[in-house]
Design a protein that fits this description.
By secondary structure, this protein is an alpha/beta fold. The protein contains 23 helices and 19 strands. Helix content is 38%, strand content 16%. Helix 16 links the parallel strand 14 and strand 15. Helix 3 packs across helix 17 and helix 15 runs parallel beside helix 22. The longest helix has 22 residues.
Length: 580
């Protein structure tokens, strides 16, 4: 009986680690691995049209499932295309294993055709990146890569020459136990006691939450109730903490709304829960600050800290709540809830007046209607740029919906390939790609992947024929917009020509019907909505120091932007304030 090849051994280890798909584009150095997948049950090869899409898709699958996902690229240019999507996965803490296949092992370092050095190139966007140089090395190296990806919730890259993959595997390969999941991290008692004393001494406590509050909604609500704290969130914390939240005061940052900014600045103790919020211009510098994070390297890198707490948010709060005294004074909380409701009341009017007659269509209106019509367990993937603004302000989380984007890396063109990965996890679940015309056009080729695999992704295209966020950046800098206008085709016609459902919407009254029809369609669909290029966004507070990464505009022609159904929740929270 023939011995197993290194490629077959590689594939078997991926299956044992729970990997179900390998996204990529075939190529000569990958052929042994792809052929092994062809002959292996339990692992599918997903052929995308661009390796960048492969990495984005794997990252989205990992975020939706919480399990290890994988992608691959052939030697040289093939695996180089992976790098942008891998940066995004790594910064999103998505466990992804990337195979960067390599030139023949005997040619490395000799300027061979398509030669690069993937074991060096991918180091900055991974927790582990190594080269397999012999068959005997492979099982342990791949196991180590898998354990890094799962244990660190990030990217591991394995570079493997094609000739090594085709060789017979080493005899008597050791069976390795694989790490199934990450453990929780509990702070020490002395740290919990110090935090409890700080909470007890504070008169006004505010909680600001990020993606690290995933799975800790009940604990955050219990703690907020005990200490009468308003709860704000960053964009990546929205889906985990905004729903069923009677303490909600909105979101801070350049995409923010409501009273989160005021709540973080007018408290005397700010507790940052599981957030690596990058915009320190929005954080106070004159209040006491505590940060709780499972990643110790993130503690204190955004703001001065009075206490750093290394621990999982849920476990930390479970230990903390019994140790703090219940507060009875709601005046600060109620004042912030009132400010939040008032702020939302004011900005909603900016887009609700005569929207059914306004052309080009307000993008705020599109996002609001989309939010109303989408399924209660839909997965939204969101392009970077103005789509981030509309998702932040209009999509209503409920504990079942997911909102995925390039929120930390900030890449264009992420939404469509992320929708591919999300849809593969469950073909019956509604997946909606909120794409900008610039981002969609950049990786438009992978719309064909939806058709090839009959993935029922619904692409809602916010088509303002411009790079809207870049125009906003130029406006802030006092520059005339230049190079930001897109001369677009009829994207719906392109979708139909490819064999998908496609409809173009130019009038507001057509919008709801078009979305309903697209959602009913069993296969992939694209709704090309012509939106107003002048609809931009204003953050809750403006200062020159805040212009970093994104941009903010002082122009009076800029709309504040509404906030959809969040106003209803804010009104309810104010109505529920106890009366004396």
């Amino acid at each position: 009986m023939a011995r197993q090849s290194v490629a077959e051994q590689f594939v078997d280890l991926l299956v044992r680690a729970g990997v179900q798909r390998l996204y990529g584009v075939v190529g000569d150095s990958l052929n042994p691995v792809v052929d092994a997948i062809r002959r292996t049950r339990g692992l599918d090869w997903v052929q995308v049209r661009h390796e960048e899409s492969a990495a984005f898709a794997a990252g989205a699958e990992a975020q939706v499932t919480g399990r290890l996902a994988a992608c691959a690229g052939s030697c040289g240019p093939g695996n180089l295309h992976l790098i942008n999507g891998l940066y995004d996965a790594h910064r999103s803490m998505a466990p992804v294993l990337a195979l960067a296949s390599h030139i023949p092992s005997g040619e490395i370092g000799l300027g061979y055709f398509q030669e690069t050095h993937p074991d060096q190139l991918f180091r900055e966007c991974s927790d582990y990146c190594e080269l397999i140089s012999s068959p005997r090395q492979m099982p342990r190296l791949l196991q180590t890569a898998i354990q890094h990806a799962i244990g660190r919730s990030g990217v591991s890259v394995v570079a493997m020459p094609g000739d090594i993959a085709a060789q017979p595997a080493a005899e008597k390969a050791t069976e390795h136990a694989l790490v199934p999941a990450r453990p929780t991290v509990r702070p020490g008692d002395e740290v919990i006691d110090a935090l409890a004393r700080m909470v007890d001494d504070a008169h006004r406590v505010t909680l600001f939450c990020g993606s690290g509050t995933a799975g800790a909604h009940a604990e955050v609500m219990q703690f907020a109730e005990r200490v009468k704290a308003p709860v704000g969130h960053a964009l990546r914390g929205k889906e985990w903490i905004q729903y069923d939240n009677p303490f909600d005061v909105g979101m801070s940052g350049l995409l923010g709304y409501g009273a989160a900014y005021e709540a973080t600045h007018e408290c005397d103790l700010l507790i940052l829960l599981g957030t690596d919020f990058p915009y320190n211009a929005f954080l106070p510098d004159d209040v006491r600050i505590v940060q709780v994070d499972v990643r110790p390297e993130r503690l204190g890198r955004r703001s001065r800290l009075d206490l750093a707490v290394w621990g999982d948010v849920r476990e930390t709060l479970r230990c903390l709540v019994p140790r703090v005294r219940a507060k009875t004074d709601r005046r600060f909380l109620d004042r912030m809830l009132k400010k939040h409701a008032d702020a939302l009341e004011g900005v909603v009017k900016a887009y609700t007046r005569k929207v059914e007659k306004h052309t080009p269509i307000h993008p705020e209106y599109v996002a609001s209607v989309l939010d109303e019509l989408a399924d209660d367990d839909a997965v939204f993937t969101v392009d970077t740029g103005m789509c981030n603004v509309w998702a932040a302000r209009y999509l209503t989380p409920n504990g079942r919906r997911r909102i995925i984007g390039s929120f930390s890396h900030g890449s264009m063109a992420n939404a469509l390939p992320q929708a591919i990965g999300a849809q593969f996890t469950d073909r019956r679940r509604q997946v909606v790609s909120m794409s900008g015309d610039g981002g969609f056009a950049m990786l438009m080729g992978d719309f064909l992947t939806l058709l090839q695999y009959d993935l029922p992704v619904k692409v809602v295209l916010f088509n303002n024929s411009s790079l809207g966020m870049v125009e906003l950046e130029m406006l802030v800098a006092g520059l005339p917009s230049y190079g930001t206008t897109n001369h677009n085709p009829d994207f719906a016609a392109i979708a139909r020509a490819a064999g998908a459902y496609g409809v173009r919407v130019e009038k507001p009254k057509q919008l709801a019907g078009a979305l309903k029809d697209a959602f009913k369609h069993k296969g992939p669909a694209l709704v090309d909505v012509v939106t107003d290029p002048n609809a931009l966004s204003m953050p809750p507070k403006i200062s020159a120091d805040m212009v970093t990464g994104f941009a903010l505009s002082a122009s009076k022609i800029v709309l504040d932007g509404g906030v959809g159904r969040m106003l209803q929740m804010a009104r309810s929270n104010v109505r529920n304030i106890p009366r004396p």
